[in-house]
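Predict structure. Chain length: 224.
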Amino acid sequence: MEVMKKAVKEKRRNLTEYESKKLLARYGVPVTREFLVKDADAAAAKAEKIGYPVALKGSGPELLHKTELDIIRLNLKNAGEVRRAFKEIKANAGDKLKGVLVQELVKGQRELVIGLVRDPQFGPCVMFGLGGIYLEILRDVCFRVAPITEDDANQMMNEIKGRKILEPFRGMAPADRKALAKALVGLGRLGMENDLVKEVDVNPLILTREGKPMAVDALVILGE
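Prediction complete.
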């Protein structure tokens, strides 16, 4: 994969969010529509192409903790707001900024997490559970050793304590389990086919009101 080759050449141990999503999309994980830009005018042009509202995020190999660095701007509704947000992100990120992501704003109240960890004994293991702040608070996640099947993925969805989040709720459609299963199976395949990938973290994976899963943030960690 070109994104991993580039990271290895640059002696990096992680992919950027943009690179991570490019890799994940190849394995069936639905990701946000987004563009990587270098200046405020380009940001405004891509925002127009995506359609408002949009989100802007600072991008760079060293910019892992975007919230703490204050390099995320959400719900931007016009070109003026996009240009202003670009300048603020550039000022806050400093020399570590390599570009800015212009991203579709995905709306949804239900947050999941999917991922991959490479266990020393069992090898690549796929993870599924409640995401967002609930990941740290509740730790409601489950694992399966890769490769996994669609049946394995469905069992994982039924295994978490908060599985009702996948059901219809307050006018929101049930989760698209087929799309979720495809993403989980794909993560297992990614781990099996790429020994260099040590860890994958997709958090949050938002469920839209229509029940469609969408990876809003993602990080791929590389090993030796």
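Summary: The helical segments are 2-9, 17-25, 40-50, 66-69, 79-93, 133-138, 150-159, 177-193.
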